Each structure stands twice: as C-alpha cells, then as structure tokens.
Amino acid sequence: MGVKLNQEINVDNYNLLIHQLIEDGNIIKAAAIYERIYQRNKDNVDLLYDIAMFHDEYINQEKALEFYDEIIAIEETEAGAYYGKAIIYEELEDFDSAVKYYKLAIEYDPGYYQAHLYLADIYDERKQDELVEAHLKAAIKYEPDPLLAYNHYGSYCESRDRNEEAMIWTNKALEIDPTHYLSLFNKAVLYKKMGKLEEAIDLYDQSILSRETYAYSYLNQAIIYKSQDKFEKAADVLTSAILHNPEVSVLYYNRAIMLMRLGKMKRATEDVIKAIHLSPSLKNYAMIDLELRGIDQAQIRGLDV
Fold this sequence. Notes:
By secondary structure, this protein is mostly helical. The protein has a domain at 240-305. The chain contains 18 helices and no strands. The radius of gyration is 24 Å and the shape is globular.
C-alpha cells in the first residue's frame, strides 16, 4: 500500500512514511513530504540531518551541503554536520574541502573516529605519513570496535613495505571477525608478498565468500593464476567477478588479457570495448598495452568515448 501525500504527517511520524516511499521508489514524493515538514520545523536538527542525508543519497549533493550548513548555523559545534560535508566533498573529489571539514569535525569532537579514519586515507594518498599514523592511532583509540581501523592500519603498513607490522594489525582485525572480507583480503596480499601463493589463493576464496561484490579479491586471485600460467583459471575467476560486479571496468580489461593468452581474440576485443565504455580513460592505454598486442586495434580506435 502506498503512502498518500495528503495524510497527516508531522515531525514525529515522518520516518516510517519516508522509508516506505523510498522502498516504493517514490523519491519525488518523499522529497515533497520532507519539504512540507521542513517548512514547519526549520530549527529541528534531527530533521535537518535526515533531509541532508536524503538529498546526499537521492537528490542533490549541493542541496545536502546547504542543509548541513543550516545545522551548523543552529549549533556551531555539531561535529556530525562537518563530517557530513566532508564525506560529500570527498565524493566530489574536492579533497582540500574534505580535509577542512574532517578536521572541523575532530575539533568539535576529538573522538569522532570515522573522521580520523577517512582523514587518514586522504593523507595516505598524499604520502603524509606522520599525519596518517596520528589519525589511524586516534581511530583505533576511539573506535568501540576497531576492526576497520586495524584493517586500514594494516593496509597502510603493507603499502610502505612494513609487512611484519601489517600482519600484526591484520591479525588483530581477524581476531575481531575471522570472516571479514577486507581482513582476509589484506592477509592474502601479505601472503602473496611472502611467496605463499596457495595460502593467498585460499584467503582470496574466503574473502570472496564473505563479500562477493568486492572486485579486488577476484582480481588479485586472477593475477596469481596468471603468474602461474593458469590463464583459463584466471579467466574463470574474472568471469565470476563480472557476474557479481558487472560495472567494474578493470575486470573486463584483465579478462581480455587472459583471453588473449588463450588465443581468443574476438572475445578479448569485446571485453576491451566493454571496459572502455565503462572507463573511457582506458582507451589510450589499451592502444599501447603490449599484453593486448594482436587485438582488433581498428575497433578500439573507432570507439567514440
């Protein structure tokens, strides 16, 4: 049964109605209800959070930022509003603004572990190691269940070839949840670096079982099979990956490489075309990639992307 727009709605009962509308796919009607309630409750911070998050996910991120600003105008120290803005700016790839607002969230709530965690990620991309470590340690300190922070710290250490430290943090994460896909993935990465390929393959299998939509578990496993000249096996793994992740361009691209090794030029060309349609920046790379030598270059060159 759908929700009627003219039924009595107030600030105390809108959540159930909005949820039902979203479940039914009636986003425009949900937005209209939010607007009606907002006009009568512009100083209700909880409502403003709900509207901001609704706009962020379904309507317009710029509008979401405006609602977070309204929260800040009501209560300057509301750390969650700064965090919400930071998340949006990071998604928009405005990383300077994201850093600014993560730092403001932490300024008003030093224990805001999510802000520490995502700020550490940005600093990691910028190779600002001291800041990475400071914020990862803060995330571990303040997070009630630090599984995610342990995984981030382990991944950070691995990227700096501090592999023994990486294993310590990864094992700490596995102690909390032995089946978590990212912990299993991170340990597989470390085992591969140690030359323990069969153990790595097994861990990637476990990671895939835990989260079928995490494309990189399949991809890394396929790369191991490729290193063992098991191209058919690698292609099969990537086919399974595509079944669960049909919009991930790198899966098609890498399957094309395996198909080339198997002499299946036509199918390889089709995969490269699909990959380029998903990620147009791959076109120029595909034209010079030695692993795709022999592919139908005319088809690739003629793509309008």
